[in-house]
Model the fold of this input.
Amino acid sequence: MTKIIDLIIQEKVYKSKKSRLSILNDFKLEVNSGERIAIVGKSGVGKTTLLNILGLLDRNYNGSYTLFGSKTNDLNLSQLAEWRNQKIGFVLQESALINSLTIEENIKLPLLYAKSGEKRKLKDFESIINVIGIESILKKKPLECSGGEKSRAVFARAVIMKPQLILCDEPTASLDGDNKERIITLLFKMNQEFNTTIITVTHDLEVANRHEKIIHLERRM
Amino acid sequence: MIVLSVLLLLFLSNYLVFIATRSTVSTLQGYDEMKHLNQVDNYIANLDPDSDMNMGEIDKNDTQNVYDYLNNNFSYALFTDGFIVSLPNAYDMEVSFAYLNEEYYKLNKQFEISQGKDLDFDYCFDNDIEIPVLIGKGLSETYPLGSTIKIEDPVLQKQITLKVQGILKPNVHHSNLNSLSSKQYYNFSVIIPINEDFINNSNVGLQLHGLFDIILLQTSKNEIDGLREVIQDNLGLEFNFYTQEENFEYFNEYYFSSLKIITILTAIIILILICLTIWSSLASIRLMIKEFIINLFVGLSYSKLRKIFYGYYGVLFFINLIILFILTAYSRYGNWIRKDASFSTFGLFGVIGMDWLALLAVLFFDIIIGIIIVEIMLWRIKKVPISLGVLQ
Done:
């Protein structure tokens, strides 16, 4: 298996005028392609910060991050955006849809920023929505959809570019049992069919236990 | 509402830049034209603003006395225009006769010709008078080079024959001696050379109007005092005589103060425009932070955002430029519709070189403003923290 993530964080600091908060001290993470990893921990230990760093949204920390064999510090802002577009998918909570766009427009949003060669992925659109089962809501706006439908739409948007890495931030937090199961099944289907690496931040131990590896984040003083 | 305000402010600043540039170009043209007059010992007449003038009380004998004195004691350059005649032409424009003497023609290099040859002033003034003239481009279709025009001259008040000796270049103009930024165009004018005989035989209209801007050559203040008395005694008018340098100073005094006001006003508008634009964009992004961050997640980069902003402001600036062009064209073309011969110009909808130059200046100004706005906006936007936490 190929190592796709090699992250070393000495310290991540949040500063304000009055305080200084240091998290993820001496944190190390190595992930091989196709692995399924869950990250659990109490609020405030840095789960979202870790996802921000893994998702190339935050480079303001002491440490190093090698992703797909490239040091992310060597990438410029445009390259980071390109990688977020093509190599990383974000499965977020159901609210992470743009309400003024239809479900179809939301799902196709990454194609708007894709290189012209990548637009061929438009062909995959129908097969993806068939698998996810959201054909009937494509023309609806998010506010007209149920929580489960919206979660599946967020999932569809995350996988439309067939990313090598999927980062999930509490993907099942507001879903009932059936819908939760559907999302987890879809995620793992991607993992098995395309060897996609999955890193999930969750409070839900039941969801966490279905991953191959669980990382417990704790505050180190 | 904010977009409309931005558009309005942008238009105002563009318009001010446009008129300031055009006026500056026009003034520089005026300076260039008048530099020939700006010689030591040349004095230019100017009717004192406090002098009461009653045309009805001035007759030919009065003005002739002044010209007799002038002819005996001075060398002078004379130019007067605006004598409207009815002369059929292809554009159905009213035609203006302009009269100038040889000294003026030599001194002023404005009346450049595209065809034919320069004016002669030593024609014989008799009953079968045929005067060689220059005509504006607008009359050249109807009256080509070498053709003759029979017409009753408005200042001689008798039938004369004009022979087209030369055709002026398009948009030949003449600036106002005292207001250098103002000018009129000679596309529909007939430039008539006049000599001493012509002046002596012309009516009070030409003689009096000719005096208003007469240029006394190679003279002195003392000699001018004698002329001033003759004018006062015969016409009852108070005349001042200034060098062109003094005219420049007078002009500069009010011109630069108005230019200063325009510049300050433009700077204030630009400042408001930049602040309003950046504030509205940042406010929009704060209001739509979720949408903005979702776009960043799926591949929007700051360089793409920069392109989007440049595209957006490019469209706004382009709309403004088009509006400005339409207004300019409307103003220029309006002269053609009103048949205003003195201001009708040749060009796309009458738009001439100085207009294009001013539009170019506006384009350059917009590019600078656009770069300032977009770069400041991006600089501020990059400071907005991007995090998954925003979506939770």
Remarks:
- Chain B has a mean pLDDT of 87.
- DSSP finds ten helices and 13 strands in chain B.
